Amino acid sequence: MISQWIEQLRDSDNSQYLIYLLMLLLFAADSQTQLGFAHGFLYAPLLLLASLANKLRLLNFCFYSAMLLIILGIFISPSAPQGFAFGYVLANRIGACICLLLIYLQMRAAIVLQMQQARQQVNMLRQQQQMQLINQLTHFGRWTFDPHNHKLSLSAEAKALLPASSRNRLTISQFSALFHSPYQLALQQLLSDCIDLQQAFDIDCAYRLEDNKTHWLRIVGYPAPDIGTGMQGIVQDVNSAHQISMRLAQQQQQFKLWADSMPIMVWTADSDGNLTFVNQTVTTFTGKAEKELLRDWLDIVHPDERDAVMAHWQHCVQSGDAYSIEFRMRRLDGQYVWHLVKAVAVNDTDGKVEKWLGSAMALGAANKAAPVPPYNTASG
After folding, report:
1. Domain containing 119: what range?
2. Distance set, CA 244 to CA 69, 232, 258, 313 (Å)
3. Which SMART domains does the record cross-reference, listed alphabetically (predicted)?
């Protein structure tokens, strides 16, 4: 019954007005009573009532108001009876103020503690919600290793990622055996080193599902000083990332096979203009390895044309304009051959240059067109 009344007092917005009214009634009674009576102590239950509302601002207002009204009562209340020394009146009022101060400090500390606990609960709830959201977005679960029983415990999320595991607590060998054989020894060694040498690790392991499909999981482990010589970590589903990586690798391999089959030179560059790939035609023509060409492709350009070639390339990289120029390249035998070199920018979804696709076609000295003289209208 009392607890329900306290809850109603806390939830009601009108509770503070009730306390204000009671305070005014107490002050009115004090102003009509001769000095010497302990009316100041009557504010103490009112202060306790204000603390039950669990509102720090209301408690502060009631305390300072009660202190002011106790002092004010000395000047507006009727005089004390004859023979009653004023010192007793003053002592009475001072005692009431000290009593209220002690109650106020105690109640204020209790309210502050409750507010801190409420904030902690809110923060914990928010962290739990964030962790649940992160689990949903990143698909990961936690695991811990207890050095006392030498077993690894899986959270519910981690066990969901490892459906082949029938138990939540596994030994290191049992946990490692869940993955494909090429990764079992490596994972078991990393787990042992994490315990013995306090070394963190991060490894992607292949895991076989019930339908015999391969699924990739990321296993991260690090020492946990709070549990002695144990360790803890996460299990994360990275299968989508591996599939994307594999598709990219296949696409790159297909592009390389296509480029190497072309009779002309094919090359690519990044958004900053640095070469990232040249096909086999380029390496055959120049006699240089691909890494050497990617590092310094200007070395095969004729010295007389290097500045102009580089200036035009930098202009296109900065502006995004299509690249088209003729210059000489050094052949394997040391001879320079004219080439028509072109490139176009490949933009991303935001319209920014992502990479460049280029080609170079040999013109040869005989195919190099001579400058055309101006047309003479008089002779024509």
Report:
1. 2-131
2. 76, 29, 21, 32
3. PAC, PAS
